[in-house]
Amino acid sequence: MWYILLSFLPDWFVTYFVHLIFGAGVIGIVAGTFLSKVPFISQYGTLIKIVSNILFVVGLFLEGGLQTELAWREKVAELQAKIEIAQQQSKESNAKIEQKVADKVKTIKDNVNANRQIIEENRTSINAECKLSDTAWLLYNGASQNALARGTSSSTGTSK
Amino acid sequence: MPWPEAPVVLLEPASNLKPLPEDKKTLTDLIENANENFGTYYQIKSKYEAWQEWYNSQKKVYESVK
């Protein structure tokens, strides 16, 4: 709970707050030591020393925690920066791949169309001496659909 | 680190090879059909290779973060 609340506070606020407690403790100890030797107000000096000692101990503890907290925050920030760079690289890589695939597919389609035109131009001469038999047709379709071509066409199942 | 997005073009389903229609039994019909099916094969092949490239590039990016 404490850690979650702390994570919402900005670095500068946490740092100043902890330094303030620690500094108040140190100053209070010095001031309390001095004041406890001054007549008439020495009783306040003792009180200040007690409060300052508590502040000093709490401040010292928080100083240690602060360094750990800041080190972790630095690591998190470092990792987040790395992740952002990685995401950017990933996007760039995807764009390159998409472009590459689009170029390849275009070339393939162009070639298919060019071949189709050549077939069309030579249609008469190609068909002059050849017609596919039903068996050849069945075998061809069986092969292209990755199915057994034996028997009728209704018995050929595809491997979708 | 969030799961990397794949290029949209690679997520499209692969098309099937087309059979030769029953009323088309000339040699040119066969060659035309083969021409189209070979084209489909090469398109799928290029996408398959792109998947490999995508995997390798994403692996490299992921390892650079560790």
Summarize the structure.
The complex is a heterodimer of chains A (about 160) and B (about 70). Chain A is an all-alpha fold and about 160 residues long.
Q: DSSP helix count of chain A?
A: 5
| Run of helices and strands of chain A | HHHHH
Overall radius of gyration of chain B: 18 Å
Q: Any idea what the shape of chain A is?
A: rod-shaped
Walkthrough of the structure:
The complex is a heterodimer of chains A (160) and B (66). Helix content of chain A is 80%, strand content 0%. Chain A is an all-alpha fold and 160 residues long. Chain A has one domain. By secondary structure, chain B is an all-alpha fold. Chain B has a domain at 22-65. Chain B is built from two helices and no strands. Chain B is rod-shaped and about 60 Å long. Chains A and B meet through helix 3, helix 4 and helix 5 of A and helix 1 and helix 2 of B.
Question: What tags apply to this protein structure?
Answer:
A: 160 residues; mainly alpha; 5 helices; rod-shaped; B: 66 residues
What's the arrangement of secondary structure elements?
The complex is a heterodimer of chains A (160) and B (66).
Chain A: H1 2-8, H2 11-35, H3 42-121, H4 123-127, H5 134-144
Helix pairs in contact in A: 2-3
Chain B: H1 8-11, H2 27-65
